[in-house]
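Lab notebook, page 48
Experiment: co-folding of the full assembly
Goal: obtain a model of how the components sit together before planning crosslinking
Operator: M.T.
Materials (sequences as entered):
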Amino acid sequence: MSVTTAHNAKRMYRFDLTKRLVAKLHRDEAVIGGIGHSNFDLFTAGHRPQNFYMLGSMGLAIPIALGVAIAQPQRKVFAIEGDGSLLMQLGCLSTVATQAPKNLVILVMDNGTYQITGGQATPAAGGTDYVAIARGCGIQSAAWAADEADFERLVEHCLAADGPHLIGLKLDEQGPAGQTERDPSQIRDRFMRGMGAKKSKLTT
Amino acid sequence: MQPWHEIVVEQLKANEIRLIPYVPDNVLKPLINAIHADPFFTAFTTAREEEAIGIVCGAVMAGMRGMALMQTSGFATLANVLASLPCAFQIPALMMISERGTLGEFNIGQAAVWRTMRPTLEALAMEHHVITRLDECGFIVDRTIRQAISTQQPAALILSPLLTGGKANPVKAGG
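Observation: model returned without errors.
Model output:
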């Protein structure tokens, strides 16, 4: 993968990156959107039944994605997690490295702040490198995206090659493009259908 | 009569509970060993109990049933994720909790955190049952799992020291 360092990675717009990711998903890949703006932009990019939008349980996007990946090893599964959320549950990177699901891809959306609560700096503002942490945990395929084109190339690599993979994305300060409908039982129902794990005649 | 952990393994298999992420505990050791020895199960440790709940919830939504194993103090770390993930989304995440902190506890920290477990379960309105007797173990495990899945609700099974023997101080009081 690329050798871009955290320092040299371009700061990009989360909604644009999310749209670029979704545009490359053609095989009903699952996407778990982490708490807050990570899933707001996923929802706003266009709902798909293979999307799961979290509501609370900060830090669990990667564990939820790992569960999906273990249950369905033939399906690629993406976790979109914010940097503040990942800090809540850093240990999950070790679990991912040890379980080594080939079909799991983690995107870390790193804006250095808690944007949804007013933009306060995270405790990692001193220079924590999430790609280096992932490598240190044992996720060898971990890289910062240099820019948008590099991100697209990395996503294509993750779709084609066995993982687990992690892509670090440095974000600019722009806010989310919309807001997720907060209806958890509906979200769960749609997602289960999208995963082929539920069949029901209650369709309209 | 079979030991409790064999009964639990039988009921997990009968109900297709295959995924077992856990944070280990001494009392759970025979169950953990039996699960690891049986290729029916996928079992591994997680760094935190919250992580295990996330993994089970993801797997359940993708068609693979699971149960997280932990001890009482681990359950005490879970109120937020239980409220906002399996309770809010109606996901039948199952938990098995080995009960520390009562009936001979020697660690005051465990005894203190034990007092938070039932109030938390009750405040979350989560189905939970305490297993105290071998002859009731299979029935309670089986029916709790079935109800959780049928009603799309999380549930907790608590393994009492009355069932497992618990973990007692080898030194007698005053000894």
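Interpretation: Chain B has a mean pLDDT of 96.
Next step: discuss with group before ordering constructs.
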